[in-house]
């Protein structure tokens, strides 16, 4: 009998699930992707600024996996026909903006956590003698702590404030003292179970990486991430339902009954399995009836809000010889990171073209600072970028702002255990995927969607 599978959520995790389902399920399987918004892609969205394609969400993804092979995102791009469209950033260093000066980020750190304290080049002064061998591992097996708790105890506050916080802020818009070590740095958490010093744990974690020296760390898609979204939708050969939210999931015999659309005029659909690839709060709401324990575990996740500002500066605008910079929270600016976009991505630059700069604004707990008009936020970003980069910038010829309210998950200590508990409490035929569960970043989201697809495929095969 022909099977029907619903993928709820049209972000990259949901699309990856749909493509994998198309690959592993019988050819006549009907796959329906329900996206309550008006477009697929989630946080992947390519915009235009002064004739240049500029990302309004994630701008790149990791090229390789920890084992040295291609990352899940690179493999996925090839699967959907975009292998030849992968591009890499220029070999430009990045910096930290500290006290009005741009200092290059020290080499050899693991998300800002150094393995060699002598290589910090004065960016941060580590605590003296704190990282001593006490004769036992840093963490007990399975123990999870906040990143900041471990690093402060071993290296001191300045390493956290000036290095780790801005690095984590650039990825998660969060603070080291509130983010789970196991969720954000799983390799370091693993080596901390055997190593007696943080320096030893960082070096051991770095040794686990089999990335080839000289291999580009990041990749993107020529033409923009929206091109990846479109190619994935085509490869999935799924029925796409836009603008029709799923409001309820109810068990109906051995199938799942979906309630869709506005409450006054509901629509329904029945499917054999469901991949749920939406943020934590909607996931918890949809699971409340079918899997209350899973709903409670998922619903504990908090999110940070951020805004991205894109500015097209006049051709030839001088900027530091960097790909961009990160800003420690202690600097007090609304800007937490900046990318010199056309310098970082040379395939987008032309001699007479605009100089594109993209800034990220806001951190966890700073939502009130984003409650300003678009115009005011652009003005603040323009002024702060000039101050941080070393001098006033000329007025932009064009600018836009992209707000991502509640856009970045904040993984509190214990997050991996809560995710495991949520998945264990799921009824057969439902699988979870996405950044709410497994981490931010396109490779992680792709892998998460593919795992969920495999789970429901295995269920359908076993129940046939």
Automatic annotation (TrEMBL):
Belongs to the protoporphyrinogen/coproporphyrinogen oxidase family. Coproporphyrinogen III oxidase subfamily. Keywords: Cytoplasm, FAD, Flavoprotein, Heme biosynthesis, Oxidoreductase. This is Coproporphyrinogen III oxidase. The keyword Lipid metabolism does not apply. It comes from Actinoplanes oblitus. Pfam families: Amino_oxidase. InterPro entries: Amino_oxidase, FAD/NAD-bd_sf, Protoporphyrinogen_oxidase, Zeta_carotene_desat/Oxidored. PANTHER family: PROTOPORPHYRINOGEN OXIDASE. It comes from the Bacteria. Residues 12-456 form the Amine oxidase domain. The lineage of its organism: Bacteria, Bacillati, Actinomycetota, Actinomycetes, Micromonosporales.
